Design the sequence.
């Protein structure tokens, strides 16, 4: 994810927290206005404080979860990179081995070709010498 996505999500969480706080405050005011009894106001204040604390904890937990998610994504990306690097090394090693086998085979074929060429050249020399003897040269 880009930093733009992160800032948008962070802003979204902050706006959500403000919304929860505002709803709780309006609820407390509404309860307080409806009943002038000090117990109900105190109870509304307690509810408001609990609601605010729960909202705060929810936002903190969401932030922690987002952080954990990014940590896990980072670890997975690093692991994928390492696995890719290892696969590339294996491919390179395999390619080197194949190239070495091909070179060895080519060298062997070249040696055989040279030996065959020497034999044919010697046979041609012998044949030429025989012809020369036959015709008196």
Sequence:
């Amino acid at each position: 994810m880009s930093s733009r996505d992160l800032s948008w999500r962070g802003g979204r969480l902050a706006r959500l927290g403000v919304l929860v706080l505002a709803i709780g405050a309006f609820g407390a005011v509404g309860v307080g206005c409806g009943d002038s009894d000090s117990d109900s106001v105190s109870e509304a204040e307690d509810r408001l404080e609990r609601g605010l604390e729960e909202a705060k904890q929810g936002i903190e937990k969401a932030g922690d979860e987002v952080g954990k998610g990014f940590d896990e994504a980072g670890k997975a990306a690093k692991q994928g990179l390492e696995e890719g690097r290892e696969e590339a090394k294996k491919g390179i090693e395999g390619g080197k081995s194949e190239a070495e086998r091909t070179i060895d085979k080519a060298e062997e074929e070249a040696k055989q070709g040279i030996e065959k060429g020497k034999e044919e050249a010697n046979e041609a020399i012998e044949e030429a010498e025989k012809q020369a003897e036959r015709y008196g040269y």
